[in-house]
């Protein structure tokens, strides 16, 4: 999925400049816009996809650390890779913490609302 405005700009550029390179088009159409956002790592996969029709794109979740009351810390995930199910991820993190495969997690809460996604991992 791409931003329609960027696609139109890239098509217009290609019509006006039929010899445009993939590098030229990437400046206008930098990559897909996934509905769950996420951070695309590197541009090689995008370049391959635009050049050959096939490319491997690695996407990471976006998270930050928030300090809570009494010096506690939370990991807050605000973006996920495309096709990662938030509810399943929440269940899996809780399961790993419960089975003591990962330590230091007290709880996982979904605080998402209209303003955006917010998966909060509460640390011990």
Strand order of the largest sheet: 3-4-6-5
Indicate how many domains the architecture comprises: 2
Mean pLDDT: 94
What's the SSE pattern?
A: HHEHEEEHEE
Number of helices: 4
CATH hierarchy class name of the largest domain: Alpha Beta
Structural class: alpha+beta
Biggest sheet features: 4 strands, antiparallel
Number of strands: 6
- CATH topology call of the largest domain: Gyrase A, domain 2
Q: Roughly how much helix do the residues carry, as a percent range?
A: 25-40%
Oligomer: single chain
Low-confidence stretches: none
Q: Estimate what percentage of residues fall within beta strands.
A: 15-25%
List keywords for this structure.
4 helices, 4-stranded antiparallel β-sheet, two-stranded antiparallel sheet, Gyrase A, domain 2, elongated, 2 domains, single chain, 124 residues, alpha+beta, 24% strand
Short recap of the structure:
The chain has 124 residues and is α+β, with helices and mostly antiparallel strands.
């Amino acid at each position: 999925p791409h931003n329609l405005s960027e696609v139109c700009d890239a098509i217009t550029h290609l019509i006006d400049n039929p010899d445009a390179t993939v590098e030229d088009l990437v400046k206008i159409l930098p990559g897909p816009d996934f509905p769950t956002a996420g951070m695309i790592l590197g541009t090689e996969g995008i370049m391959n996809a635009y050049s050959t029709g096939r490319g491997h794109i690695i996407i990471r979740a976006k998270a930050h650390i928030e300090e809570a009351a009494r010096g506690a810390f939370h990991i807050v995930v605000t973006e996920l890779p495309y096709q990662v199910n938030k509810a399943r991820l929440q269940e899996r993190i809780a399961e790993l913490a419960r089975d003591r495969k990962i330590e230091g997690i007290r709880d996982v809460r979904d605080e998402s609302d209209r303003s955006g996604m917010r998966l909060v991992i509460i640390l011990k």
